[in-house]
Structure formats: C-alpha cells, structure tokens
C-alpha cells in the first residue's frame, strides 16, 4: 500500500466562543467544536472530496491540514514527517486555493506582483527568472502572459480564479487544498475551471483535498469522498461506491438533495445542532429518519465494509439503532 502524503490522526479544532482580552481560554468557557477527532489519509496523486452542509467544519479541516491553524489536539503528518518542524519547507509543498478569488487576491497589486510574491518568499531565481516563471504559470492556467500587467478588478471571475490557481502552483507544490474553488463562479465558468483542475492534477501529479458542496462535481472529480457532519467524518469511501450505495443516513440525505439549490437534506428534519453543544450519542440522531433508542446514548464506532467504505452508524456497526 502506498504511504500517504497527508495523514491526520485524531485531529480536533475547538474555538473559544468569547476569547478573553489576552486571548486566553477561561475554565468552563463554551467551545465551538468545529472539527472533532478526524483521522484520514490522502495518497500521493489522489483527489479526496470533502462534502457536508455549510458549517460542518470542512473549511476548518482544510486549514488545519495545511497548519494555517494549529489543531487543538491530534497530529498532522506530511510525507511521513511533522510539517510543523519546518513550516517554510511545508508551505513550498502544500498550498491552498480559496473560494472567492475577488477577496483572496490583493486588489492593489498587478497579477505579476501577486504571482511574484510566493516566488520571492521562497527565493525562486532572480527577477528575470521569476518573470519567465510568471509567464509560464499564466500559460499553464490558460491565461495570456500579457495579463501579468493587469489588476484583479480588470479580470473576469474565472480569470481571477485561474490567477489564484497559478499562485498556488507557483512554487511547485505536491498537495493543494481547494476550498470551494468553483462555487463563487458563474455556472458557465465552473466546468472550465473544474476541467483545468483535473488537467493540472494529471499533468503535475498533484494531490488534492477538494472541499465542495457540489456532490455531482465531487463525484466526477474525486477518487474518494469524505462526508462531514458537525465536525466529524461520518462516511468515507471510493467515490462511485459511495455515490451508488451510500450507507450513512446523512450521506443518503445529501445525495437525495443533490438536485436542490443548497445542501439541506430534505430527509433530515430540523436545523444543524450547535457545534457548541453537539447532541450526545450519534450527533445526527435528532435529524435522522432511522434513529433508534441507542442512537441518542452511544456514539457509533466506525466500521469498514469490504467495498472500502468506512461509516459511523449503529445500523452498520453490528448492533441495532
Ligand atoms: Fe441515524 Fe442512529 Fe445511524 Fe446516527 S447512528 S446515523 S442516528 S441510525
């Protein structure tokens, strides 16, 4: 079995609801449990899709995977080592593409200066060599080199996102977290950017963590899909298997809602509970159409099927709900 490129072991991320003036967390202060005890790994060259409703913890998990925020507990390993021991080297190999290119690109800088920034930080060549690299990057993402002289507001949304992708690729990373990279774009442009991401992944042998609420896109683009609910991974497995035969009631509800505009599962009644006080037992039980007496008391343990799908639900852990 191939050694994972990225591995998360028991990763949690909690935030204080009201940090004190000195940023300290006080005893008994309520905490937002944005990510809870997540373990997963991504193999080199793999695309793992991460789906779930808004507020499920997807983006937080992506930022923690890149150590843009430190985990509250648990460990992040990259290429078998602790990336925190040399963050500068880790940043060379692991990058992020943000959802909204309009806000993630500095409006006061030209595209050339935006793309020059990561190259300068990581001491890539001299000025002339960096100019050549910037032209290469623009061509790589399907933009003309003369775009380097423009400002972000002079570009379309799709072109800005291409610049965001070029910036992430500038220092030749191995791993990229893509946080809803197409959702801020016009529908007509989304497919073009998605095609570009696939082409780049194959051409440059990249590994992606692809965060999205678009299940159709995730199915098309990803090798495996992980489903998040209230900070936890409730199901993870090969994309086609999970799409055709989801086991967890939450995954089933998401797939049934796939034609809806947003990701509110019609079979899952009520609102998502507060991550400050997640329900006891299975956190999905207040909304689950299949919930039984055990579900409110005992957290289900994750079990893996012969098809390689791991799910956390009492209907599949050998007991009864
Ligand atoms: Fe539903 Fe119970 Fe399974 Fe949770 S453990 S998803 S409440 S059946």
Folded structure, characterized:
The strands form two sheets. The chain has an eight-stranded mixed beta sheet, sandwiched between helices. The chain has a three-stranded antiparallel beta sheet with strand order 2-1-4. The longest helix has 18 residues, at 187-204. Helix 4 (111-121) packs parallel to helix 6 and helix 6 (157-169) packs parallel to helix 7 (187-204). The protein is 30% helix and 21% strand. It has one domain: Rossmann fold (3-Layer(aba) Sandwich). By secondary structure, the protein is α/β, with parallel strands linked by helices. The two termini are 34 Å apart. The structure holds iron/sulfur cluster. Iron/sulfur cluster binds at residues 248-249, 282, 284-285, 288, 290-291, 295, 300, 313-315, 321. GO terms for molecular function: ATP binding; ATP hydrolysis activity. It holds the Pfam family oligo_HPY. This is ABC transporter ATP-binding protein. It is found in: Cell inner membrane. Keywords: ATP-binding, Nucleotide-binding, Transport.
How do the helices and strands follow one another from N- to C-terminus?
EEEHEHEHHHHEHEHEEHHEE
Distance between the termini: 34 Å
CATH topology: Rossmann fold
Helix content, binned percent: 25-40%
What does the radius of gyration come to?
21 Å
The CATH homologous superfamily is termed P-loop containing nucleotide triphosphate hydrolases
Give the names of the bound compounds.
iron/sulfur cluster
Instruction: Count all strands and give the number.
Output: 11
Spans of 5+ residues with little confidence (pLDDT < 50)? 262-266
How would you characterize the largest beta sheet? 8 strands, mixed
Mean pLDDT: 91
Q: What would the principal axes of the Cα set say about the shape?
A: globular
Q: What is the second-level CATH architecture?
A: 3-Layer(aba) Sandwich
Q: What is the CATH class name?
A: Alpha Beta
Decide which structural class fits the backbone. Answer: alpha/beta
Strand content: 15-25%
Number of continuous helical runs: 10
The tally of structural domains comes to 1
